Amino acid sequence: MTTTHAASPAGTRSARTRATATRPPGQSSRGLPAAVGSQAFLLLLALAFLAPVVWALVSAFKPATQIISDPLGLDLTALTLENYRRMFADVPIGQGFLNTAVVLVTKGAITLFCAPLAAYAFAKYRFPGRDLLFGTVLITLMLPTIVLIIPLLLEMKALGWVNTYQALVLPGAVDAFAIFWMRQVIADVPDELLDAARVDGCGEFGIFTRIVLPVIRPALAGLAVLTVMNIYNDFVWPVVAASSERMATLQVVLSTLAQNITGNRVGADYATVTGELLAAASIALVPLLIVFIALQRHFINGILAGSVKG
């Protein structure tokens, strides 16, 4: 005869304890459906944002007539580089890339060098008029760009800098938002670290480079990504300050691309212009994608820097 033993309460508790211990940390049976739903929603949101980009990249390789006749179709056997070949022949996009690269490197370097230094002074030094001066910097954030164009253009004309790299680089090189962001991050650096460095005989610039800079490196990387995007996508000021084709940046070249295509080729139809526009837009998109993919971890850490207080 078989004897059946009922499980004791202690044994049941031990089994539940072992099951809980084997469950991944931070995951509960109730929270799993919510997590799956959140991931699914984010995936759908990402697909919605990426769909136009993917369509533009793929359509740039399609024949011009097929882009108009069958926008959502894809024939792998018909893919061609004809749109790119025609675009390079009709549009000085290489000169636009060169001008943008010069402005990007020079202006970006000035921003990333001067903004943290100014923010360090606002965050860690006490001097007369500091708050008033910082408030003035913040006020400039509220001014629309269009308000500053005419005064800046008159200034560039007086200096003889119209259609030069100086006009493209210097105005706005020390950005008010960059100073504000860096100031908020540097303010969280403990003053005790700086005082200890001063006691050890470290100079002020040495304190900034050896102590402050390593601490704010994630935020600085995030600022670098935003600075690259702002300079790369800037259109209003370059189209005003550099009206000549020789000094046109990439965004200015793209804005006049349709006129250049129709002007350089007699009988260029709508399909041809659309194909070359997509080819040029695809080329202009690639550098930003590379920068963001390469620095996305630093960019996210920089955005979150200073948002959580200990």
Can you offer a commentary on this structure?
- By secondary structure, the chain is an all-alpha fold.
- The chain has a domain at 92-306: MetI-like (MetI-like fold, Orthogonal Bundle).
- It contains 16 helices and no strands.
- The model is unreliable at 1-7 (pLDDT under 50).
What is the highest CATH level, the class of the domain at 92-306?
Mainly Alpha
Low-confidence stretches: 1-7
Radius of gyration: 28 Å
Helix content: over 70%
CATH-defined fold name of the domain at 92-306 = MetI-like fold
Structural class of the secondary elements?
A: mainly alpha
What's the average pLDDT?
A: 83
Full CATH superfamily name of the domain at 92-306: MetI-like
Total helical elements: 16
Write down how many β-strands occur, each being a DSSP E stretch of 2 or more residues: 0
User: Major sheet, described briefly?
Assistant: none
